[in-house]
Amino acid sequence: SREWHLVARPQGWPKPEDFALREAPVLQPGEGQLLVRNTHMSVDPYMRGRMNDVKSYIPPFQLDRPMDGGAVGEVVASGVEGFAPGDHVLHGLGWREYALVEARHAVKVDPDAAPLSAYLGVLGMPGMTAYAGLVDVASFKEGDAVFVSGAAGAVGSQVGQIARLKGASRVIGSAGSDEKVRLLVEEYGFDAAFNYKNGPVLEQLKKAAPDGIDVYFENVGGEHLEAAISVLNPHGRIALCGLISQYNATEPVPGPNNFALVLGKRLRIQGMIVNDHEALRPRFVEEVGGWLRSGELKYRETVVHGVDNAVDAFLGLLRGENTGKMIVSFGD
Ligand code: NDP
Protein backbone atom coordinates (compact mmCIF):
# COMPACT_ATOMS: atom_id res chain seq x y z
CA SER A 1 0.00 0.00 0.00
CA ARG A 2 1.24 3.48 -0.80
CA GLU A 3 0.97 6.54 1.43
CA TRP A 4 2.04 10.18 1.16
CA HIS A 5 4.57 11.56 3.63
CA LEU A 6 5.54 15.17 4.19
CA VAL A 7 9.32 15.12 3.94
CA ALA A 8 10.11 18.85 4.17
CA ARG A 9 8.17 21.81 5.53
CA PRO A 10 7.29 24.07 2.59
CA GLN A 11 8.54 27.64 2.57
CA GLY A 12 5.93 29.64 0.69
CA TRP A 13 4.34 27.62 -2.11
CA PRO A 14 4.74 23.87 -1.52
CA LYS A 15 6.90 22.02 -4.05
CA PRO A 16 6.49 18.42 -5.21
CA GLU A 17 9.84 17.63 -3.50
CA ASP A 18 8.29 18.42 -0.11
CA PHE A 19 6.31 15.16 -0.40
CA ALA A 20 7.11 11.49 -0.99
CA LEU A 21 4.90 8.55 -1.90
CA ARG A 22 6.13 5.59 0.14
CA GLU A 23 5.30 1.92 0.53
CA ALA A 24 3.81 0.74 3.81
CA PRO A 25 2.63 -2.70 4.95
CA VAL A 26 -1.10 -3.45 5.00
CA LEU A 27 -1.92 -4.43 8.58
CA GLN A 28 -4.81 -6.57 9.75
CA PRO A 29 -7.32 -4.83 12.05
CA GLY A 30 -7.13 -5.44 15.76
CA GLU A 31 -10.06 -5.19 18.12
CA GLY A 32 -12.11 -2.05 17.44
CA GLN A 33 -10.34 -1.42 14.14
CA LEU A 34 -11.21 -1.53 10.46
CA LEU A 35 -9.03 -2.09 7.45
CA VAL A 36 -10.33 0.28 4.80
CA ARG A 37 -9.43 0.45 1.12
CA ASN A 38 -9.74 4.14 0.36
CA THR A 39 -11.71 5.00 -2.76
CA HIS A 40 -11.65 8.81 -2.49
CA MET A 41 -9.65 11.32 -0.49
CA SER A 42 -10.04 15.00 0.09
CA VAL A 43 -7.48 17.71 -0.42
CA ASP A 44 -8.37 20.87 1.48
CA PRO A 45 -6.85 24.32 1.90
CA TYR A 46 -6.44 23.87 5.70
CA MET A 47 -3.85 21.15 4.98
CA ARG A 48 -1.41 23.88 3.94
CA GLY A 49 -1.47 25.18 7.52
CA ARG A 50 -0.74 21.71 8.85
CA MET A 51 2.48 21.62 6.82
CA ASN A 52 3.90 24.39 9.05
CA ASP A 53 5.31 23.51 12.44
CA VAL A 54 3.06 25.86 14.37
CA LYS A 55 0.52 25.42 17.13
CA SER A 56 -3.01 25.72 15.80
CA TYR A 57 -6.49 24.29 16.28
CA ILE A 58 -5.25 21.11 14.61
CA PRO A 59 -1.76 19.59 15.06
CA PRO A 60 0.82 19.91 12.27
CA PHE A 61 1.69 17.00 9.99
CA GLN A 62 4.81 15.22 11.21
CA LEU A 63 7.76 14.85 8.90
CA ASP A 64 8.30 11.38 7.43
CA ARG A 65 4.91 10.24 8.67
CA PRO A 66 1.79 9.71 6.56
CA MET A 67 -0.34 12.81 6.16
CA ASP A 68 -4.01 12.50 7.01
CA GLY A 69 -7.34 14.05 6.13
CA GLY A 70 -10.87 13.20 5.04
CA ALA A 71 -11.38 10.01 3.03
CA VAL A 72 -14.03 7.48 2.16
CA GLY A 73 -13.41 3.84 1.47
CA GLU A 74 -14.63 0.30 1.62
CA VAL A 75 -14.14 -1.90 4.66
CA VAL A 76 -12.12 -4.97 3.69
CA ALA A 77 -11.68 -6.46 7.17
CA SER A 78 -13.39 -5.60 10.42
CA GLY A 79 -12.40 -6.12 14.04
CA VAL A 80 -15.60 -4.68 15.43
CA GLU A 81 -19.25 -5.56 15.54
CA GLY A 82 -21.50 -3.36 13.44
CA PHE A 83 -19.03 -2.98 10.55
CA ALA A 84 -18.62 -5.62 7.87
CA PRO A 85 -16.56 -6.00 4.71
CA GLY A 86 -18.30 -4.12 1.92
CA ASP A 87 -19.48 -1.30 4.18
CA HIS A 88 -18.47 2.20 3.12
CA VAL A 89 -17.08 4.57 5.71
CA LEU A 90 -16.02 8.19 6.05
CA HIS A 91 -12.93 8.64 8.20
CA GLY A 92 -9.84 10.79 8.75
CA LEU A 93 -7.01 8.70 7.31
CA GLY A 94 -6.66 9.88 3.74
CA TRP A 95 -3.41 10.29 1.78
CA ARG A 96 -2.98 6.47 1.64
CA GLU A 97 -4.42 3.52 -0.26
CA TYR A 98 -5.21 1.35 2.77
CA ALA A 99 -6.04 2.75 6.19
CA LEU A 100 -6.22 1.07 9.57
CA VAL A 101 -9.04 3.05 11.13
CA GLU A 102 -10.35 3.07 14.70
CA ALA A 103 -14.01 2.22 14.17
CA ARG A 104 -15.08 4.91 16.64
CA HIS A 105 -13.58 7.46 14.22
CA ALA A 106 -15.44 6.05 11.22
CA VAL A 107 -18.95 6.90 10.07
CA LYS A 108 -20.89 4.60 7.78
CA VAL A 109 -22.04 6.24 4.57
CA ASP A 110 -24.60 5.07 2.07
CA PRO A 111 -23.33 4.83 -1.53
CA ASP A 112 -26.93 4.54 -2.77
CA ALA A 113 -28.04 7.79 -1.13
CA ALA A 114 -25.28 9.88 -2.75
CA PRO A 115 -22.05 9.37 -4.69
CA LEU A 116 -19.28 8.53 -2.21
CA SER A 117 -17.31 11.66 -3.08
CA ALA A 118 -20.25 13.82 -1.96
CA TYR A 119 -19.52 12.82 1.65
CA LEU A 120 -16.24 14.72 1.31
CA GLY A 121 -17.91 17.74 -0.27
CA VAL A 122 -21.45 18.94 -0.46
CA LEU A 123 -22.69 16.51 2.23
CA GLY A 124 -19.48 16.61 4.21
CA MET A 125 -17.10 19.03 5.88
CA PRO A 126 -17.21 21.81 3.24
CA GLY A 127 -21.00 21.67 2.94
CA MET A 128 -21.33 21.83 6.70
CA THR A 129 -18.90 24.77 6.76
CA ALA A 130 -21.05 26.69 4.31
CA TYR A 131 -24.25 25.98 6.23
CA ALA A 132 -22.87 26.64 9.71
CA GLY A 133 -20.94 29.70 8.58
CA LEU A 134 -24.02 31.29 7.13
CA VAL A 135 -26.55 30.24 9.78
CA ASP A 136 -24.53 30.22 13.01
CA VAL A 137 -21.60 32.53 12.39
CA ALA A 138 -23.01 35.19 10.05
CA SER A 139 -26.49 35.05 11.66
CA PHE A 140 -27.98 35.11 8.18
CA LYS A 141 -31.59 36.20 7.96
CA GLU A 142 -34.04 36.48 5.13
CA GLY A 143 -33.57 39.65 3.14
CA ASP A 144 -29.81 39.90 3.75
CA ALA A 145 -27.56 40.72 0.80
CA VAL A 146 -24.69 38.23 0.87
CA PHE A 147 -21.24 38.40 -0.71
CA VAL A 148 -19.03 35.30 -0.78
CA SER A 149 -15.46 35.05 -2.04
CA GLY A 150 -14.01 31.81 -3.34
CA ALA A 151 -17.53 31.42 -4.66
CA ALA A 152 -16.91 28.66 -7.19
CA GLY A 153 -15.16 26.45 -4.64
CA ALA A 154 -16.51 23.67 -2.44
CA VAL A 155 -17.59 25.95 0.42
CA GLY A 156 -18.34 29.13 -1.53
CA SER A 157 -20.61 27.55 -4.14
CA GLN A 158 -22.80 26.18 -1.35
CA VAL A 159 -22.79 29.43 0.63
CA GLY A 160 -24.22 31.37 -2.29
CA GLN A 161 -26.89 28.82 -3.12
CA ILE A 162 -27.94 28.27 0.50
CA ALA A 163 -28.26 32.03 0.93
CA ARG A 164 -30.43 32.21 -2.18
CA LEU A 165 -32.61 29.29 -1.05
CA LYS A 166 -33.01 30.86 2.38
CA GLY A 167 -34.27 34.12 0.93
CA ALA A 168 -31.30 36.43 0.50
CA SER A 169 -32.23 39.70 -1.19
CA ARG A 170 -29.10 39.50 -3.33
CA VAL A 171 -26.24 37.00 -3.68
CA ILE A 172 -22.88 38.10 -5.05
CA GLY A 173 -19.81 35.98 -5.63
CA SER A 174 -16.23 36.40 -6.74
CA ALA A 175 -14.00 33.80 -8.37
CA GLY A 176 -10.80 33.56 -10.34
CA SER A 177 -11.93 32.89 -13.90
CA ASP A 178 -14.62 34.10 -16.30
CA GLU A 179 -15.82 30.52 -16.69
CA LYS A 180 -16.34 30.17 -12.93
CA VAL A 181 -18.17 33.51 -12.89
CA ARG A 182 -20.49 32.30 -15.60
CA LEU A 183 -21.22 29.13 -13.64
CA LEU A 184 -22.14 31.16 -10.54
CA VAL A 185 -24.76 33.17 -12.37
CA GLU A 186 -26.06 30.65 -14.89
CA GLU A 187 -26.05 27.44 -12.85
CA TYR A 188 -26.05 28.46 -9.20
CA GLY A 189 -28.40 31.43 -9.50
CA PHE A 190 -26.15 34.14 -8.07
CA ASP A 191 -27.54 37.60 -8.83
CA ALA A 192 -24.11 38.95 -9.71
CA ALA A 193 -20.55 37.66 -9.87
CA PHE A 194 -17.15 38.94 -10.93
CA ASN A 195 -13.65 37.72 -11.70
CA TYR A 196 -11.34 39.24 -9.09
CA LYS A 197 -8.46 38.99 -11.58
CA ASN A 198 -10.22 41.36 -14.01
CA GLY A 199 -9.88 44.54 -11.91
CA PRO A 200 -9.90 45.98 -8.38
CA VAL A 201 -12.22 44.01 -6.08
CA LEU A 202 -13.69 47.16 -4.54
CA GLU A 203 -14.78 48.60 -7.88
CA GLN A 204 -16.28 45.34 -9.04
CA LEU A 205 -18.01 44.69 -5.73
CA LYS A 206 -19.55 48.18 -5.61
CA LYS A 207 -20.98 47.64 -9.07
CA ALA A 208 -22.32 44.19 -8.15
CA ALA A 209 -23.82 45.40 -4.84
CA PRO A 210 -25.27 48.87 -5.44
CA ASP A 211 -27.21 48.70 -2.15
CA GLY A 212 -24.32 47.31 -0.12
CA ILE A 213 -24.08 43.92 1.59
CA ASP A 214 -25.20 42.66 4.99
CA VAL A 215 -23.09 39.51 5.17
CA TYR A 216 -19.61 38.81 3.87
CA PHE A 217 -18.57 35.15 3.85
CA GLU A 218 -14.78 35.37 3.84
CA ASN A 219 -12.74 32.64 2.20
CA VAL A 220 -9.91 34.68 0.75
CA GLY A 221 -8.65 37.72 2.76
CA GLY A 222 -6.48 40.61 1.61
CA GLU A 223 -8.02 42.89 -0.98
CA HIS A 224 -11.34 41.02 -0.70
CA LEU A 225 -11.64 41.71 3.03
CA GLU A 226 -10.85 45.38 2.60
CA ALA A 227 -13.42 45.76 -0.17
CA ALA A 228 -16.08 43.95 1.83
CA ILE A 229 -15.53 46.19 4.87
CA SER A 230 -16.04 49.20 2.61
CA VAL A 231 -19.25 47.88 1.10
CA LEU A 232 -20.84 46.28 4.20
CA ASN A 233 -23.92 48.05 5.54
CA PRO A 234 -24.14 49.15 9.19
CA HIS A 235 -24.40 46.16 11.56
CA GLY A 236 -23.10 43.87 8.82
CA ARG A 237 -21.46 40.56 9.72
CA ILE A 238 -18.35 38.84 8.43
CA ALA A 239 -18.03 35.07 8.80
CA LEU A 240 -14.26 34.59 8.71
CA CYS A 241 -14.00 31.11 7.29
CA GLY A 242 -10.70 31.19 5.41
CA LEU A 243 -7.90 33.41 4.15
CA ILE A 244 -6.54 31.38 1.28
CA SER A 245 -4.77 34.31 -0.41
CA GLN A 246 -2.25 34.31 2.42
CA TYR A 247 -1.69 30.60 3.18
CA ASN A 248 1.59 30.58 1.25
CA ALA A 249 2.74 34.01 2.43
CA THR A 250 6.30 34.18 3.75
CA GLU A 251 5.89 37.64 5.33
CA PRO A 252 3.21 38.95 7.72
CA VAL A 253 0.21 40.13 5.73
CA PRO A 254 -0.95 43.73 6.33
CA GLY A 255 -4.44 44.15 7.76
CA PRO A 256 -7.23 46.02 5.96
CA ASN A 257 -6.37 49.74 5.75
CA ASN A 258 -10.01 50.70 6.35
CA PHE A 259 -10.31 48.84 9.65
CA ALA A 260 -11.77 51.94 11.36
CA LEU A 261 -14.98 51.37 9.40
CA VAL A 262 -15.61 48.28 11.56
CA LEU A 263 -16.16 50.67 14.44
CA GLY A 264 -18.33 53.27 12.75
CA LYS A 265 -20.48 50.67 11.00
CA ARG A 266 -20.68 48.42 14.11
CA LEU A 267 -19.56 45.44 12.04
CA ARG A 268 -19.09 42.00 13.57
CA ILE A 269 -16.21 39.79 12.46
CA GLN A 270 -16.25 36.24 13.73
CA GLY A 271 -13.80 33.46 12.99
CA MET A 272 -15.11 29.94 12.66
CA ILE A 273 -13.98 26.33 12.84
CA VAL A 274 -16.55 23.96 11.41
CA ASN A 275 -16.09 21.31 14.12
CA ASP A 276 -17.66 23.65 16.69
CA HIS A 277 -21.01 23.46 14.94
CA GLU A 278 -21.93 19.77 15.26
CA ALA A 279 -25.22 20.70 16.94
CA LEU A 280 -26.38 22.02 13.58
CA ARG A 281 -25.74 18.76 11.72
CA PRO A 282 -29.30 17.35 11.82
CA ARG A 283 -30.66 20.58 10.33
CA PHE A 284 -27.87 20.59 7.75
CA VAL A 285 -28.58 17.02 6.67
CA GLU A 286 -32.30 17.61 6.47
CA GLU A 287 -32.24 20.94 4.69
CA VAL A 288 -29.29 20.45 2.34
CA GLY A 289 -30.24 16.83 1.68
CA GLY A 290 -33.71 17.97 0.71
CA TRP A 291 -32.45 20.67 -1.67
CA LEU A 292 -30.11 18.16 -3.30
CA ARG A 293 -32.91 15.66 -3.83
CA SER A 294 -35.21 18.32 -5.27
CA GLY A 295 -32.44 19.56 -7.54
CA GLU A 296 -32.59 23.09 -6.13
CA LEU A 297 -29.01 22.87 -4.89
CA LYS A 298 -26.26 22.03 -7.36
CA TYR A 299 -22.63 21.13 -6.96
CA ARG A 300 -19.57 20.36 -9.01
CA GLU A 301 -16.48 18.31 -8.30
CA THR A 302 -13.08 18.28 -9.90
CA VAL A 303 -11.79 14.73 -9.77
CA VAL A 304 -8.11 13.84 -10.05
CA HIS A 305 -7.40 10.14 -10.54
CA GLY A 306 -4.81 8.03 -8.77
CA VAL A 307 -3.04 8.18 -5.42
CA ASP A 308 0.16 9.22 -7.21
CA ASN A 309 -1.55 12.45 -8.32
CA ALA A 310 -2.76 13.47 -4.84
CA VAL A 311 -0.06 16.10 -4.29
CA ASP A 312 -0.72 17.57 -7.74
CA ALA A 313 -4.39 17.78 -6.81
CA PHE A 314 -3.51 19.61 -3.60
CA LEU A 315 -1.24 22.07 -5.43
CA GLY A 316 -3.90 22.52 -8.11
CA LEU A 317 -6.43 23.40 -5.41
CA LEU A 318 -4.19 26.20 -4.15
CA ARG A 319 -3.85 27.48 -7.71
CA GLY A 320 -7.59 27.44 -8.37
CA GLU A 321 -7.63 24.54 -10.83
CA ASN A 322 -10.75 23.13 -9.16
CA THR A 323 -14.38 24.02 -9.72
CA GLY A 324 -16.29 22.88 -6.67
CA LYS A 325 -14.79 20.22 -4.42
CA MET A 326 -11.34 18.89 -5.33
CA ILE A 327 -11.44 15.11 -4.97
CA VAL A 328 -8.79 12.46 -5.49
CA SER A 329 -10.32 9.20 -6.68
CA PHE A 330 -8.38 5.95 -6.27
CA GLY A 331 -10.96 4.13 -8.33
CA ASP A 332 -10.16 1.91 -11.26
P1 NDP B 1 -12.09 25.69 -2.64
O1 NDP B 1 -12.83 24.58 -3.26
O2 NDP B 1 -12.72 27.04 -2.56
O3 NDP B 1 -10.66 25.77 -3.32
C1 NDP B 1 -9.79 26.80 -3.07
C2 NDP B 1 -10.04 27.97 -4.04
O4 NDP B 1 -9.42 29.13 -3.55
C3 NDP B 1 -9.41 27.77 -5.40
O5 NDP B 1 -10.22 27.01 -6.25
C4 NDP B 1 -9.21 29.20 -5.90
O6 NDP B 1 -10.31 29.57 -6.73
C5 NDP B 1 -9.25 30.03 -4.62
N1 NDP B 1 -8.01 30.79 -4.42
C6 NDP B 1 -6.75 30.30 -4.36
N2 NDP B 1 -5.88 31.31 -4.18
C7 NDP B 1 -6.61 32.45 -4.16
C8 NDP B 1 -6.28 33.85 -4.03
N3 NDP B 1 -5.01 34.26 -3.87
N4 NDP B 1 -7.29 34.74 -4.06
C9 NDP B 1 -8.58 34.33 -4.21
N5 NDP B 1 -8.94 33.06 -4.34
C10 NDP B 1 -7.96 32.12 -4.31
O7 NDP B 1 -11.68 25.27 -1.15
P2 NDP B 1 -12.69 25.03 0.05
O8 NDP B 1 -14.06 25.34 -0.39
O9 NDP B 1 -12.39 23.74 0.65
O10 NDP B 1 -12.23 26.15 1.10
C11 NDP B 1 -12.57 27.52 0.90
C12 NDP B 1 -12.09 28.34 2.08
O11 NDP B 1 -12.75 27.89 3.26
C13 NDP B 1 -10.61 28.22 2.36
O12 NDP B 1 -10.12 29.47 2.78
C14 NDP B 1 -10.55 27.23 3.50
O13 NDP B 1 -9.39 27.37 4.27
C15 NDP B 1 -11.81 27.59 4.26
N6 NDP B 1 -12.37 26.53 5.10
C16 NDP B 1 -12.52 26.80 6.42
C17 NDP B 1 -13.11 25.92 7.27
C18 NDP B 1 -13.32 26.31 8.69
O14 NDP B 1 -13.76 25.49 9.49
N7 NDP B 1 -13.00 27.53 9.05
C19 NDP B 1 -13.55 24.59 6.79
C20 NDP B 1 -13.38 24.41 5.36
C21 NDP B 1 -12.80 25.36 4.56
P3 NDP B 1 -10.26 30.82 -7.75
O15 NDP B 1 -10.11 30.24 -9.10
O16 NDP B 1 -11.57 31.48 -7.53
O17 NDP B 1 -9.09 31.69 -7.37
From TrEMBL:
<dbReference type="InterPro" id="IPR041694">
    <property type="entry name" value="ADH_N_2"/>
</dbReference>
<dbReference type="InterPro" id="IPR045010">
    <property type="entry name" value="MDR_fam"/>
</dbReference>
<dbReference type="GO" id="GO:0016628">
    <property type="term" value="F:oxidoreductase activity, acting on the CH-CH group of donors, NAD or NADP as acceptor"/>
</dbReference>
<feature type="domain" description="Enoyl reductase (ER)">
    <location>
        <begin position="15"/>
        <end position="328"/>
    </location>
</feature>
<dbReference type="InterPro" id="IPR036291">
    <property type="entry name" value="NAD(P)-bd_dom_sf"/>
</dbReference>
<keyword id="KW-0560">Oxidoreductase</keyword>
<dbReference type="InterPro" id="IPR020843">
    <property type="entry name" value="ER"/>
</dbReference>
<dbReference type="Pfam" id="PF00107">
    <property type="entry name" value="ADH_zinc_N"/>
</dbReference>
<dbReference type="InterPro" id="IPR011032">
    <property type="entry name" value="GroES-like_sf"/>
</dbReference>
<protein>
    <submittedName>
        <fullName>NADP-dependent oxidoreductase</fullName>
    </submittedName>
</protein>
<dbReference type="InterPro" id="IPR013149">
    <property type="entry name" value="ADH-like_C"/>
</dbReference>
<dbReference type="Pfam" id="PF16884">
    <property type="entry name" value="ADH_N_2"/>
</dbReference>
